[in-house]
Amino acid sequence: MTRKEIWVIVERNEDEIEDVSLEILGKLTVLAKSSGYKVVGIVLGTSNESVLRDVIRYGADKVILMKHERLNEYSNDLYSKVLFDLASSEFPTALLIGATYYGRDLAGRLAARLRTGLTANAINLKMDEEGLLVFGVPAYGGKIMAEIVCERARPQMSTVRPGTFTKFFDQDRKGEIVEVIPDLSSIQDRVRVIERKVTKSKDLTKSERTIVGGNGIGGDLSMVRRLAELTNSDVGVTRPLADKGLAPRDLQVGTTGYSLKSRLTLILGVSGSEHFTSGIRDCGTVISVDIDKESEIFNHSDYCVVGDVAEIVPAVIKKLEEKR
Amino acid sequence: MRNIIVCLKVVPKSENIIFDPVTKRLDRSKAENQINEADKTAIEIALRVREKQGGRVILISMGPPLFENFLKLGVAMGADDAILLSDRNFGGADTYPTALVLSTAIAQIGDYDLVLAGEESSDAALGQLPGQIAEFLDIPQVLFASSVEADAGKLRVRRRIRGGHEVVETSLPAMVSVEMGAVQPRFPDFKKMKRALSQFHLTVWSSRDLGLREEVTGNKGSFTFVRGLSEITPIRRKKVFIEGDVAEKSTQLAELLRERQRS
Fold first, then answer.
1. What DSSP assignment string belongs to B196-224?
2. ipTM score here?
3. B166 contacts in A (CB within 8 Å)?
């Protein structure tokens, strides 16, 4: 018998909880209210109480802390073992994970071990009359949304695309905190981290102003960076640019990257495939520059400039530099 | 190095897929097919590992007979062998039975040190097969890899994480998914292509060859189902064109940027 509980794996970096985990909690507070499901946040590692309290304030009814020092850093082997053990003894009806690198790394193995269905990169979440979760996922480059259900196995699992849902916060929200000390004595971590290099990159989903470069910028981001500096904006790129290594994946906008919610977005040299435009749906004002006046991107823009990015952008930079 | 097995998928080019909003069906008939780009990257990595460490590169793919020529294309890139996993019962599979079929085939090939795949397919973009395959084979996994070095029974992999990368080490055999664009895949060799098409004998395994019961594969073995498809309606935008020469356009653009900065 499954419990009327929906679990969210809370990803964090020490005391800082990943936004996507909070966004899922936020979405679930809305869903659970009408359906009578309990929202449960699962925190792994050792943690101070303020993090656990926060999980509740952001929407959980209950927090389970899987308390063990070996869980302080993500490990595919250890996390999948601990979460498999917990889920197969507690039977939650659903289990959701943010579609981060670690989250996606974990989800496949965990779902296979639990012998259940897994949906990827959900951008929509509903519950039907029977209480079955309906996951909306972008398909075929994002022009279509497929509604996926998992009827015959539990938990219903999905990863959720970062930047999709809105957070909830209630300073006074109360909830239960449960501590579990998992037995990890018999398990080895088969993957050993030797080196880690992380630069604190901007979380694009939080960016107020973004300038996005695509193939039409001519393979060099310096112009885009300069314009971003002058307008106090963040830089994003399309997938082809990230594929070429011009910018890290953390700056990639679109289906397999991040969704923007910027107030102002300037898009340079992007043709506007569905892969990309699905990532700018929630933006405020969108301005685009592209050389092709038939470009699809203009159908997704408030202001359109037909022209060569290599001519227009330097001229804009010059104007902004003059009038500083 | 023992066998290096690369899992690949043949995908339609998404630009050519048409969605009919009335019937809510996809028309793929006009779509041209290709080897998924990230999987090509995985083949290239496999070939480079073989160049240094030896071993045989074996390609596997689950799909209809039309995949045959794409596997041969992989052989023309330099793979030693290719196996198509094809059966009517495999149709309509979600990732769970797909991973089951692929991992059963990998176990059947046996004697492997490394299993490679692209990070995700361009059509479904799920990226969850590698983790599922690794689980079914009970081997360690490293996903989103940008470089792979094998040495002395160990694997050293650079993988993408949020905001940067990690270098990790794992024992063999292991499953690695490869980031698209990590290396430039080589072009198929013309002579090898001729040989692949005329002389190479592609192995085809059915569910019977793999000893898999009908109910664990394909649609029957799947847990997730598509309940419906809907078109994602575009957001209505103003679509105001800014006219003039470069100077006028850039003046107006600079104004827009400045104005919006203040508000």
1. HHHT---EEE-HHHHT--GGGSTTTT-SE
2. 0.90
3. 193-197
